[in-house]
Amino acid sequence: MAIDLAHKHVKSKNRSAPKSDNVYLLLLVKLFRFLARRTDSNFNKVVLKRLYMSRVNRPPVSLSRLASLTRNISGNTAVVIGTITDDERMEVVPKLSVAALHVTKGARARILNAGGEILTLDQLALRAPTGSNCVLLRGKRSAREAVKHFGRAPGTPNSHTKPYVRSKGRKFERARGRRASRGYKN
Question: Residue 132: its pLDDT value, please?
C-alpha cells in the first residue's frame, strides 16, 4: 500500500477534545468516549461530539421549547447537551424527565415542582448506556443577536441584515438608500 504524500499535512478541523479545562466536562468526555467505543450506539457518538462543542454551538433550550418538542413523546428522557433555561411566559410546566449539562435555578425549581426529574449526564449513562428511550434535543443556533448582522451588506437590494448603528433614531441610516427622495431606494 502506498503513502498518500499529497495529504501528509492535512489536519482534521473537527474537535477531538473540548477546549475547556472544566474537570467535570472532561470526566463526562472520558465516560462517553468509552461508551461510544464499547457500544454500537450512535447516540453516544453524537453526545460525545456535542460535548466537544464550543458554547456558541451549544445554545440553550427553554422550558417552553422543551415542552413543545416532548409533547408527543411520553416516557422518554429529553437529553440536552447544554443549558435548560426557564421561560416565564409559560404558566403550566408539564411533567418532564430531562438530562442536561446545566439547568438554571428557575427551570430546576419549576421542573421539580411539576413532578418531573432532572438527571446529570453521568446518571443518564448509568440508566440508559445506549440512549434507549432518550430524545436528543438542541436549541436554535441562529437565535443569537450576532447572527442578525450576518449576510448581505445592509443597504444592498433585498438585504435584511441588521446594520451596526449607534442608535435607532431618525438620523441613523434612514435617508440614502431608504427613500427615493434621497438619492435612491433599495
Answer: 96
